[in-house]
Amino acid sequence: ILASGRVLLNDDGHSIGALIVLRDVTQLRHLETVRSDFVANVSHELKTPITSIKGFVETLLSDEWNHQPDILRFLEIINQQSSRLNAIIDDLLTLSRLEQKEGRVMKEDSQLAGVLENAIYLCQLQASKKNICIELTCPDDLTLSINAPLLEQALVNLIINSIKYSDPDKKVMLFAEKQKELAVIYVKDEGFGIERKHLDRLFERFYRVDTARSRKLGGTGLGLSIVKHIIQAHDGSIRVESQVGEGSTFIISLPLNPPPKTNEKK
Ligand code: ADP
Fold this sequence. Notes:
The chain is an alpha+beta fold and 266 residues long. The protein is built from 7 helices and 9 strands, in the order ββααβαββαββαααββ. The strands form 3 sheets. A 5-stranded mixed β-sheet has the order 4-6-7-9-8, covered by helices on one side. The protein has a two-stranded antiparallel sheet with strand order 1-2. The two termini are 42 Å apart. Adenosine-5'-diphosphate (ADP) binds at residues 161-162, 165, 189, 191-192, 194, 202, 207-210, 214, 219-225, 248. Adenosine-5'-diphosphate binds at residues 161-162, 165, 189, 191-192, 194, 202, 207-210, 214, 219-225, 248.
């Protein structure tokens, strides 16, 4: 709390009271911390691949270095790290676009089953590399007002995570149903699971349970944060249930009849 005060004087210069202003700046301070943490994280995430790329390029260029057999290996690392940089920047741009238009994305009535099928189709290649089977159960008549490409992207992020954080030969299950005024979508895997203590922070930008493993698997640490923004832009919510060694379930709830936006023209 920030406090400031001053004595109030009348025209004769006599004190007639005091004015004390107390401002609760907790929220403001919290936002400042989140912002500066984010900038520090972005810088660190971008610097890691750049340092690696620069190191290998300098080695390739140096006069003393002439070990030909390593050239291909070094170029491969440089290529990988460049792709990593690209992926981080793409995800940062997606996040910033979503933040700009939060709650104002274009929506159209779409059949949920079709959106889920498309998302699964986009993940099929990754799934087959680990012999993971993706199952879908969704009623055909479930129609929602959504931005289909964005919801598809959120689902792809969740399915790809399920594939990445599972052993080969497991299953990923997508299940959707109507619950009163909501459409509820479950993305369930039989993967490594997540310890309880991480669950609250999982949707934060750059939060990972195991940074080394995430990086090795090509993760940017922004996937779930993007998912959360997409779901929020649909006035929905997302939560996760998980058991280490058994698997995780991400549960999305979307309103069947979203509330009209106040800034929308009647
Ligand atoms: P990343 O690019 O690291 O995968 P995400 O934001 O998508 O970033 O996920 C954040 C972290 O949450 C991951 O690093 C991983 O530790 C954990 N995680 C996400 N999905 C799953 C899952 N299905 N099973 C186990 N862990 C998961």
